[in-house]
Every structure is written in C-alpha cells, then in structure tokens.
C-alpha cells in the first residue's frame, strides 16, 4: 500500500493491530491457519495488519514474511520499539532504513539500563525471579515451547526484559514500585512478566496512529485484537476491540465501549472477532448466536 494516495478514499482508511501469541498465533502450536482467509482479504483490501507483540524484532522479521505482513509496520517488545517500512517512515524524523528496508524507532529505554536496574532491585529487596537472559536455552525451549532457533531469537532483546516471577505478591508490589521510581514498568504477558521503559502496547499504537494520520492526512478507523493483560492498553487505544479468549484465567477488562469477546481461543478467536466487526452477515443469517446477540446489543447501544 502507499500512504500518499492522491484522492481521498470514500471510507476512512483502516488499520488492524494484533497481538501474536495466543491471538493471531495459537498459544501452544503457534499455528495461524484459521486466520489465513482474513489475512488474505485484508491484504487484498490494502488494510495493514500490524503485529503488536512482546516478541523481539529478530523474532518478528521471519514471522511477518511467513504471515505476508511485510508491507505493514510492527511494534516489538511490548511497545519498546517500532519497525517502519519505507511508506511509514518519515525522512526528517527517522534514521534511514537498515539493510532490511526498515527504519527502527526506539520508543522505550535501552536494555542495558533495564538489566542494570533489575540487578539493583534483586540485590536490594532480595527478590526471587529469573530473567529470560538468565535462562539456559534448554530451559527457555521447555518453558515456551519454542523451537531452539526461535528461542535464540527471543533472547535478542533491545528494549524489554521478560522474567519469571518466583516470589510473593507483596514483594511483587514492592518491586513494581521500585521500578516505577526508575521510570520502568512491569507488565504481565502470557508466560512472562515484562520490564520495559515508560511505554506499552497502547502508547506505541497511539504513536503509530498519529504517524499514519500525519503522513496520510486523515485519521484511520482502528481495530485491535489481543488476549492478555499486556494487551489492555492497546485495546483501549483503538476504535473497536476484540478480547480473544485466553488460555489463562486472568480478567481482561479494557475500558472500551466497542468490545467483542470471542468464544474461540487463538487464531480461531481472531477470525471470529474479524467476522464480528468486519464480516458480512451470512445469507442464511447463520452467525454464531453469541455474535448475533452481541451485534444487536451493539446496534441498540448506538
Ligand atoms: Mg497474547
């Protein structure tokens, strides 16, 4: 797609933001088959599908090739950095693209500072946690279910550090408070807790929407899909949202009036959410009962 279209489109341009693990990708198998038809349709419509994930830049690059999302930007490491294809980068504001054709914008803080402060708080409060960088490759493979090459890519962090918490809730609160004093944040993902700079998926999505509006000259209509607590800020930063049923018992309750909750998990829930917001009603009216109910409730709510 090009962002410098000469004539304004009849309807506003659309952007789709999506979490990966447990959303577009199955939590266990990392399969995305059920979402394939929708990805094809959105590509044909020129609607960018923008991964917003806790994954690293190194993990996303092969994935976006496989998913056919190379024309779209991405947000890595829970909002810590943005990867911008040429059509999304700004000649004056961004450094020139690297060999992969992407301009990388750091929206958080450097990983070196995060690791330094984690060491300080562990020492000072005597905390029990294991960071991803401290895990052996074998332990990381066992804990995440990733294949070894992918696990290696997951360890190439630039702006956030995942960790496994092995201590009490009280100490977690003290840890969080200490990090906040350093200008750092602690957010919960599907498998790990993540320590990042003062940025999150929501701030990164808002930044990208502003970037789009500045380049294109019109505000996009935005949709986001996610399954975890670290997706809440993203789900609140868009016009319409889908909470995908998670493989966890955590309550995901974004402050979002235009919200659909899927019955299915992972990529099937992703497709269900797209059906709800963008699907044509089937000729025989055979949407799922829940979607129809929600749909009519939504319509009545105006
Ligand atoms: Mg997730």
UniProtKB/TrEMBL annotation:
Compositional bias segments (type: Basic residues): 290-302
InterPro entries named among the record's database cross-references: HAD-like_sf (IPR036412), HAD-SF-IIB-MPGP (IPR006381), HAD-SF_hydro_IIB (IPR006379), HAD_sf (IPR023214)
Keyword Hydrolase: yes
Keyword annotations from UniProtKB, A to Z: Hydrolase, Magnesium, Metal-binding
Record carries keyword Glycosyltransferase: no
GO annotation terms (biological process): mannosylglycerate biosynthetic process
Source organism, top-level taxon: Bacteria
Segments of this protein annotated with the region Disordered: 281-302
GO MF annotations in UniProt: magnesium ion binding; mannosyl-3-phosphoglycerate phosphatase activity
GO CC terms, sorted: cytosol
Identification of the protein by name: HAD-IIB family hydrolase
